Structure formats: C-alpha cells, structure tokens
Fold this sequence. Notes:
alpha/beta; CBS-domain; five-stranded mixed sheet; three-stranded mixed sheet; 46% helix; repeat; CBS domain; Ion_transp-like_CBS
Amino acid sequence: MERRNFDGKFGRFEMAVESTCCGSGFFIHILVIIFLVLFAGLMSGLTLGLMSMSLVDLEVLAKSGTPKDRKHALKILPVVQKQHLLLCTLLICNAAAMEALPIFLDGLVTAWGAILISVTLILLFGEIIPQSVCSRYGLAIGAAIAPFVHGLVWICFPVAFPISKLLDLLLGHGHVALFRRAELKTLVNLHGNEAGKGGELTHDETTIIAGALELSEKTAKDAMTSISEIFAIDINVKLDRELMNLILEKGHSRIPVYYEQPTNIIGLVMVKNLLTIHPEDETPVKNVTIRRIPRVQGTLPLYDILNEFQKGHSHMAVVVRQCKQAEQLSSSSASDNAEKDVKIDIDGEKPLQEKVLKSKRLLHKWKSFPNSANNSYGRSRSRKWTKDIDADILHIDGNPLPQLAEEEAIGILTMEDVIEELLQEEIFDETDHHLEDS
C-alpha cells in the first residue's frame, strides 16, 4: 500500500512505502534483511578471523598441527596469500551489505525506525557475535567457506584489485611476523608446564631450548674453567711414583702440560698413554707423547667452538688473551722467534650476556681433549684446525720448546663445558660424584 501526503501551503511532500503485513513483498523484505545482516556479519567475522592469522602461523599448522588443523590450514593458505586483496574484498562486501540494509528496512518502518533497527542489527548480529565466534573458531569457519570467499574475490576483483595494489605499493606486501631470539625464549617458557598455562613442555625441554638460543650470545671466556683451577704438569718434571699417584687421584683422562709457567700451556698428555710408564723409571714428561692444543680467543662464540668440536678433531681448547706488552706492539714488530700456534680469531668483542656456570663451580676440575691445530712458522692464523693427525703431536727432540710471549692462557674450554652451557646444568662423572660425596 502506498501513501502520499502533500501540503501545498508549506510546499512539503512526504511519501512512504509500506508493505502489507504478511504479504509476499513483506516476506521478501524480511528475507533480504536477514540475508544482509548475516552476510555483513560473516564478512565482519572473516575480516577478523582470517586477517588475524599470519602466514607463519598457518604454515606451522599446515606442517606440524593436528590432522584437523593441517587440513584447515591448507585450505585457508591459498586464500590469505594476498592479504590486501582479501581485506579489500571482505570490506567491500561488508560495506555493501550494511548500506543496503536501511533501504529495505525503510520499506517496512519509518525512517527513524529503519536507522534504529539497522544499527541494532548490525552492531549485535553483524559485529559483536560474528567477531566473537570467528576469533575463536576462525580456522574452522575460514576453511569451511574458503571456496565461497574465493568466489567473492573474483566478483569484487575489478574494484578490490586496484585498491589492493595501491596498498601493496604504500605498505608493502608479504610481511612475515617472525619472532626475535628473546621473544622465542619467552614463547617457549610460556609453553612450559611450569608456567601454568596448559603447556606441554617440561622443565628440561624449556631449559635446553633456552640454552640453545642463548649459546650464540656466549663466548669462550664465559664457559671456560679458569687457569687457576686446572691441574697441569710441567714438561720438565719426571713421572715418578708421587706424580703418578697424583694423576690417578685427579681422575682426569688428559693432563695439560705447560712450560716454565702455568699460563704457557703448550700441549697435553693423554693418561692412557701413561699405562706403559713405570714410576721407577722416572720418565720425563717431555719423553712421552704430548699432543698439541688449539688456542682460541676469549671472544670466540661458543657456537663456533661447538662446530669445530663436532668435526671430531678436538674436544678442548686453551683460552688465551693478549699480554699488555704485546697489545702495545704493532703486528709488524712482533717477535719472529716466538712460535705461533694456529688460532681462531674473532673481530670485536661481544658483551657478556649471562653469568657463567663455571663461576659457581664447586668442583675444581679440569676437562681436556686432544689438539689438532697446526703449528706454523710465519704463516697467517687460520680459522680451521688441521686434519693432519701427525700435526697433533708436539715434537720435542731437537726442537726449541714453544714459548708465546705475546699471549697467555687464561682458561681451559672443553666440549663438556659447551654442552653444560647448552643444558644450563652441570654434568658430573663418577669422579665428580666421588669428590662431592667425600
């Protein structure tokens, strides 16, 4: 039924179109209104649900999620690859539905009633409820209607594509939200069962992961055992009964050997090579097999040392520092008579990030390993240790003993030390437990 009112005196013309209640036009308007509200709500919910999923999260779910999550993620990934195009499509459809709703409401109620009802319907059923549902079940809902969304992208493509390209030009595209090292550590800790948030990671798992993330920030100086805490022997001493008993008491598999002073460590002796030595013979240490030991700077990252350890040539290194006298001299005026071992140098120093485990060691023990570094004269220092097995042996007969005047040893670093920093826990062997119990 159509009603017209005209007031010629005031020049006012009013027209309202009303549909007869329970007529065919009335039900058509109701169905269209319901469709527009649901469609606008779906677009609003998908905007929040799909756009809040980063490509990294979806790739993680697609590769390592539950079977159900993997299936959903694989369906959603092609849709959200072009995020700006998807965003423009969803917003265009949402805006079209919300703008069309008052037009159909105006055919049923007055103008102010249409505004009031449309605002209420859009706010409640087009925004609050859809976004609440999609924020929780966005993965499942997005996967279920992914083909429908793909069709909308093609329908809105003529309008959405230019806008999306403009956004790509202004804001860039393909942003990947990756976590920094500190953020990953916090994320792992939050997933631990000790955090009380329902995580499945145990204390040991979170500790080891955190230790692996922190290992790149730690250096050789952080994990070494101080030179004052190690057990070493002079190359000129004799392997008599007293010294052999002391070596047996210490329980180490390898003993460092120094020349003249403990800070001038030149090699090491493997205890298994002393099995054939008779204490009554008082064999000098220099007459037994002495293996070389690589020398590294205290600023060398532990990951670099671990990579060298994994090659199987060496499981221990001596940590050195430049003497003050040597620091004042230029490299061109360095002593030609000093024998230079192969060293792994590093430019610059890294700040100390963590208080080292070794500073609180209760057991003053020394851990050793064989050296596979080349001893060269006048050669540039290499970053890799030699693979020549014969180069591991320090030849004493007829050769002057090495004495490095430009540097001094400050500590010993072994693979066990690096692994302890990785695990962030002490590793005890049978001898350690014996000493601890006693």
